[in-house]
Design goal:
- It is found in: Cell membrane.
- The chain has helices spanning about 5-40, 45-80, 85-110, 115-135, 135-140, 145-170, 175-190, 205-225, 225-235, 235-245, 250-255, 260-270, 275-310, 315, 320-345, 350-395.
- By secondary structure, the chain is an all-alpha fold.
- The protein contains 16 helices and no strands.
């Protein structure tokens, strides 16, 4: 793949603005909202909040991010035929389905949450799904600067929401205000919400890809939040809080390179882009180098930063910080490789990877908890993420990159 100087300059600019956008939201959530919620709640209560938000994030990412990615992948086909439709209909179905799941989650934790908290969670999920899908407009149009402003506005909303939480005592407001601000900004700067609520000739192929991505994303995010979903029933809410704090630095630092994934997928989805094995490995080698660099940084600075933000939980988290951060960074490394497979390999490969990865994570996770408690789970997370990464490299290497 040959780039002109102008294209390389734009790509670097897109990376830069995307990294800033992610940093803004990461700072607001990981350095303000979550530490504040940890401060005003007991370790057990905070663990429950993390578990519930893990479930909500699974819903939003599985339904909305999958639709976002399908729109990005399929957009060229709709432009070729000059047709509009399908996506708002699928979005409506996703919203209705998410409501049922969220209500179930709320009533599962009924003893811990009031009825108003459950209502706030429902509103939060609706706004989050709308925000997560409609932001694809910026990726389709390669408007990454606008995406950065969008992220800034959401981040301001998160911080304001955290302040309002101290007044209202309802923790979902910390997240809800940010999602509301994001949706308002999208209303004034995008147009995808104006598309017809109808089917097109591409509906069947789009739904097929959407369903595959929902399943693969669901498995992936169940694994992403498996620390909470597995640790809570086996070891309790305090263990969830301990592991989340222990892996905080690696996840936050690793998120600095996540924007690369979004930018790559956006550029891969353009009409003129063609993938080669050489370019595939150039990207992978660069990401591996960055990941090693981030891990070295985490070894020397993670304990200090984590202790600064989570003083009430740092002592419990200390023994697990290094290995928990390593697992998080390996996971991010695989996330950067995924866009190439998503855009140029058969969609079914995503399902194969996630099933193997999910089985390994679940099996090794349960075994690790039973044999070594929280430390055993951390080791299981490292091994499972290495398996996933190797699968991606093997499939990518032996793919012809000829299929969209």
């Amino acid at each position: 793949m040959n780039f002109s100087f102008r294209k390389i300059k734009k790509l670097i600019k897109d990376f830069g603005t995307s990294i800033v956008a992610t940093f803004l939201m990461t700072f607001a959530l990981q350095f303000v909202v979550y530490p504040y919620l940890a401060l005003i709640n007991s370790p057990t209560e905070y663990g429950i909040i993390l578990t519930v938000m893990g479930g909500i994030n699974i819903i939003v990412v599985s339904l909305a991010t999958s639709l976002n990615n399908v729109r990005l992948i399929q957009n060229v086909e709709y432009e070729k035929k000059s047709i509009k439709g399908d996506f708002n209909l699928l979005l409506l179905i996703a919203v209705l389905f998410s409501l049922l799941i969220t209500i179930c989650i709320g009533f599962f934790f009924f003893d811990n949450f009031s009825n108003l908290t459950i209502v706030l969670l429902v509103v939060l999920v609706i706004l989050a799904i709308l925000r997560t899908y409609y932001m694809v407009f910026y990726r389709v149009k390669l408007e990454f600067f606008n995406n950065m402003i969008f992220s800034l506005i959401i981040s301001i909303g998160y911080i304001l929401g955290a302040l309002l939480t101290s007044i209202t005592k309802y923790w979902p407001i910390a997240f809800l205000i940010g999602e509301l601000f994001g949706c308002i900004y999208l209303y004034f700067t995008t147009s995808f919400y104006k598309e017809p609520l109808s089917r097109t000739v591409n509906y069947k192929s789009t739904v097929n890809k959407y369903l595959i991505l929902i399943v693969t994303t669901l498995i992936g995010n169940l694994i992403l939040y498996l620390d909470r979903l597995l640790l809570f029933p086996f070891l309790g809410g305090e263990a969830v809080a301990t592991y989340t704090v222990a892996s905080f630095f690696g996840k936050s630092l690793g998120m600095a390179i996540i924007p690369i994934s979004g930018v790559l997928l956006a550029h891969y989805s353009q009409k003129k882009f063609s993938m080669t094995k050489k370019f595939f490995w150039q990207v992978n080698i660069l990401v591996i180098i960055l990941s090693v660099f981030f891990f070295i940084i985490s070894i020397y600075t993670s304990e200090w930063v984590t202790g600064l933000l989570y003083p009430s939980l740092i002592e419990e988290a200390k023994p697990y910080i290094i290995i928990a951060n390593l697992a998080a960074i390996i996971n991010v490394t695989g996330n950067i490789t995924q866009p190439a497979l998503l855009s140029f390999c058969k969609t079914s490969w995503q399902l194969v990877i996630q099933i193997i990865y999910g089985a390994a994570y679940l099996g090794l996770g349960v075994l690790g908890i039973k044999m070594g408690g929280l430390y055993g789970f951390c080791l299981a997370a490292i091994i499972s993420n290495i398996i996933r990464l190797l699968l991606m490299y093997i499939i990518g290497t032996f793919s012809s990159f000829s299929t969209r």
